[in-house]
Design a protein that fits this description.
Its main location: membrane. By secondary structure, this protein is α/β, with parallel strands linked by helices. Helices cover 33% and strands 23% of the residues.
Amino acid sequence: MDAVNDDSPSLEVSGLAFAYPDGHQALFGVDLTVGRGERVALLGPNGAGKTTLVLHLNGILTGGVGTVSVAGLPVAKRNLAEIRRRVGIVFQDPDDQLFMPTVREDVAFGPAAAGMRGAELETRVREALEQVGMAAFADRPPHHLSFGQRRRVAVATVLAMRPEILVLDEPSSNLDPASRRELADILRSLDVTVLMVTHDLPYALELCPRAVILSEGVIAADGPTQRLLCDEKLMRAHRLELPFGFDPRSVTVGAA
């Protein structure tokens, strides 16, 4: 395995181009750098290449042109075990991640598979569940939880691996307003780099000071989330629409 460079950005993507076996070109040379501790929203219409880009971050997809590095570590076969520990992906449907009899076992699965045992494993599980406010549910079957609670447990399964980057796929989808707020509070409290793929533009504005618009396989815009959402011409050009009556200018954006 290559050496990790602790001075490197969390994520560096350079010239990434990728075509699927059927010939569909999904990415046409993406350049993206995300610093440590940044929270960045990845926006764009369906078919823009967002999922293709995300799946390159932990080596699920390979074979493209260009490079991807996490904390200075190239995403390459020789580094995949460490890359997959450092890049945690929380899927849109928590049931894609929760498959064990209890919440505790689900959260323990990743660290246990990496060789962790005993008191160290218990501590790791407890800390991850406390971070998402689900410690009291450790012995519950996941399928007995609400959708919002299952999503928080899915986040905990990734946090238990102490990732460098937390990638969230549509984290606010199907959540009621209270669950949406609870998850936002959790995400703000985490000391981790966040890349959030979302169509929920108010949520992106609330949580991510920076946004990147991916459109037709290229980065079309990269800047402060509020500035991008206020650019009506840019939004229309890339099929991004704010909810009716929502004015991004009315939102006070903090750095936290």
